Amino acid sequence: MLSILRIVWALWILGFIVLALIATSALLFAPPGTPARFHTWLLRMFMAAVWPLALFSRSGRNALSAGFRRIRRD
Q: Mean of the pLDDT values across residues 29-38?
């Protein structure tokens, strides 16, 4: 049981790091005139922290995928 928790913990940390890097690079490389750039970064950092919880519900999965579609369009 402890090994399963370690695997889940490692996946959550790895996912957070990847999503935080994506959010930060979107902030750094966004055009200077982008409105609410810092607010968008904070929202994406929050999504990076709670992404495992969002996977449990359909609306959470939709919100995560919509957030990443916005990142790819930026």
A: 83
